Amino acid sequence: MATTCRANAALLTQSTMGRKFVVGGNWKMNGTKAQINEILGFLKAGPLNADTEVVIGVPAIYLDYVKSNAPANVEVAAQNAYKAEKGAFTGETSPLMLKDIGVNWVILGHSERRQIFGESDELIAEKVAFALSNGLKVIACIGETLEERDAGKSEEVVFRQTQAIANQIKDWSNVVLAYEPVWAIGTGKTATPQQAQEVHQSLRQWISKNISPEVANAVRIQYGGSVTGANAKELGSQADIDGFLVGGASLKPEFVSIVNARQ
Ligand SMILES: O=C(CO)COP(=O)(O)O
């Protein structure tokens, strides 16, 4: 028994070890220059754990400003990008434009894009593929609604959303998955560490079986939904949680302690 436990622990350490912790701050449609300067102030002051990758998701209009003013240890992400280089797509942003101003990351498929703006699994998968093919790194969001969870369909939904992406891409090395149960977003209802770990683990098993064991072992899966300075440490200690995607708390100084949750 003791040997098995030790062996399991060793396996866990081995499997999590290669995956760098990655914490995203999704500002959503928040921020004025004054507020952004405050956020950049606490990010500069940190200190931010050098072993954690930090990416902030900024409203399109402020991307250039934040890119020019963010500290070097903080990466900048757009919150959306379209699946075309350029053209008659009023209001959209192209991955090439993001690259042009030095932005290397994009968040795609957030549940607010899915629910409020009606983005389908297929459109999101196409956007992921197009962003990757233009050299962007992608945080691809997945997650079930409360209705779906209550119907026992959490895994089915998450697998379906991931399958749609798998249908469009081969190389997962520049993809981070963000598991964000919709019922936990902005509600103060965090998934318990066990609930989150359960989905992350079965998603990793699904990836192993349906994509490849190598991708399953390497791909980072963030948890998102009411992550705070108070709950980040316990969530971050779960074997299959490789970081967070943080909404509300990413606008506040407590974001620093979330970044440092794995220290
Ligand atoms: O949607 C989220 C991050 O993308 C989570 O938002 P909250 O952290 O505000 O719940």
Give the count of helical stretches: 12
Q: Could you tell me the strand content as a percent range?
A: 15-25%
What is the mean predicted local confidence, pLDDT? 93
Distance separating the two termini: 30 Å
Write out the distinct hetero groups bound to the structure: 1,3-dihydroxyacetonephosphate
Family: Belongs to the triosephosphate isomerase family.
Pathway: Carbohydrate biosynthesis; gluconeogenesis; Carbohydrate degradation; glycolysis; D-glyceraldehyde 3-phosphate from glycerone phosphate: step 1/1
GO molecular function: triose-phosphate isomerase activity
Catalytic activity: D-glyceraldehyde 3-phosphate = dihydroxyacetone phosphate
Protein architecture, described:
The protein is α/β, with parallel strands linked by helices and 263 residues long. It contains twelve helices and eight strands. The chain has an eight-stranded parallel β-barrel with strand order 1-2-3-4-5-6-7-8, surrounded by four helices. The protein is globular. The structure holds 1,3-dihydroxyacetonephosphate. Keywords: Gluconeogenesis, Glycolysis, Isomerase. One of its GO terms (molecular function) is triose-phosphate isomerase activity.
Give a brief description.
This protein has 263 residues and is of the alpha/beta class. The protein has helices at 2-17, 33-45, 63-69, 95-100, 111-116, 121-133, 146-150, 154-166, 193-210, 213-218, 232-236, 255-259; strands spanning 21-26, 52-57, 74-78, 105-108, 137-142, 175-179, 220-224, 243-246.
